[in-house]
Amino acid sequence: MARTVDQARHEARRLVIVDAALTVFAARGYDGATTAAICRQARIGSGTLFHYFPTKLAILLGILEYGTREVRESAAAYEGREDPVGVLLEIVGRSADEAADPRVPGFVRAAAGVMHLPEVAAALEADADAQRARLRPWVERGQELGEVRTDLTDARIVSWLMLLTDGFLERVAAEPGFTAAGERDLLVATAREFLHPGGRPARRGGRVSR
Amino acid sequence: MARTVDQARHEARRLVIVDAALTVFAARGYDGATTAAICRQARIGSGTLFHYFPTKLAILLGILEYGTREVRESAAAYEGREDPVGVLLEIVGRSADEAADPRVPGFVRAAAGVMHLPEVAAALEADADAQRARLRPWVERGQELGEVRTDLTDARIVSWLMLLTDGFLERVAAEPGFTAAGERDLLVATAREFLHPGGRPARRGGRVSR
Amino acid sequence: MARTVDQARHEARRLVIVDAALTVFAARGYDGATTAAICRQARIGSGTLFHYFPTKLAILLGILEYGTREVRESAAAYEGREDPVGVLLEIVGRSADEAADPRVPGFVRAAAGVMHLPEVAAALEADADAQRARLRPWVERGQELGEVRTDLTDARIVSWLMLLTDGFLERVAAEPGFTAAGERDLLVATAREFLHPGGRPARRGGRVSR
Amino acid sequence: MARTVDQARHEARRLVIVDAALTVFAARGYDGATTAAICRQARIGSGTLFHYFPTKLAILLGILEYGTREVRESAAAYEGREDPVGVLLEIVGRSADEAADPRVPGFVRAAAGVMHLPEVAAALEADADAQRARLRPWVERGQELGEVRTDLTDARIVSWLMLLTDGFLERVAAEPGFTAAGERDLLVATAREFLHPGGRPARRGGRVSR
DNA sequence: AATGAATGAGAGTTCATTCAT
DNA sequence: CATGAATGAACTCTCATTCAT
Question: What residues are annotated to bind DNA (chains A, B, C, D) (predicted)?
Answer without folding.
Answer: 34-53
